[in-house]
């Protein structure tokens, strides 16, 4: 074999840099939520308020709500496999608990009053798996489980167009998880805790995705001092106080 005389061994192709995720600001999330059909509006709350994936949102049951702690048990998802809906464990088999904010719990309760949970029976794990019946918060008007293809085209994209958000893959339903991560990191939550809430297998993976969203040291310092000084009595500044 003749070697290439023009080859330069010290040159390496650039490493692939995944595009940085861009979470939605709070005002956009609120406007988008208002544009979603009422029957499915709580999907935005479960995504941005609990960090659930799409299939996990579709699989949430009243049985998963633990009001005593309070947490939401993420134990299943609704998957579309070869055109058939099934129940399955969350991605990677990582069953987890996520904190259930009061605001999300209230919206779930309000949703259940308007659209009572429906018992759904689907095979577990595979299309030929043992049937399992679970009451679900989110179903179609016909009383069937939600399918990602029908939901994305009939619900999500309609709200995207109504809100004027660019209709691209960056603004799919996964953006709600990015928004959840952004809010928690900005509030000072640890990457390790966020990783557990998102169901990631490795906090390092979480850090690689969201490192650009971490507040800087200067941001944390400003917020900390502003918080500490918030209740100080208002006294005039001047020569007499110098």
Account of the protein in words:
With about 240 residues, the chain is of the alpha+beta class. Helices cover about 40% and strands about 15% of the residues. The protein contains 9 helices and 7 strands, in the order αααβββββαββααααα. It has helices at about 25-35, 40-50, 55-60, 100-115, 150-165, 175-185, 190-200, 205-210, 215-230; strands at about 65, 70-75, 75-80, 85-90, 95-100, 120-125, 130-135. The protein has a 3-stranded antiparallel beta sheet. The protein has a two-stranded antiparallel ribbon with strand order 3-4. The protein has a two-stranded antiparallel sheet with strand order 6-7. α1 packs across α5. The longest helix is centred in the middle third of the chain and has 16 residues, at about 150-165. The model has no long low-confidence stretch (mean pLDDT about 90).
Topology order in helix (H) and strand (E) letters = HHHEEEEEHEEHHHHH
How far is it from the N-terminal to the C-terminal residue, by CA?
83 Å
Shape: globular
pLDDT averaged over residues: 90
* Oligomeric state of shown chains: single chain
- Into which percent range does the helicity of residues fall? 25-40%
Helical stretch count?
Answer: 9
Computed Rg: 23 Å
Strand content: 5-15%
Total E-strand runs? 7
Give the class from helix and strand content and strand pairing.
alpha+beta
Strand order of the biggest β-sheet:
1-2-5
Unreliable segments of 5+ consecutive residues:
none
Biggest sheet layout? 3 strands, antiparallel
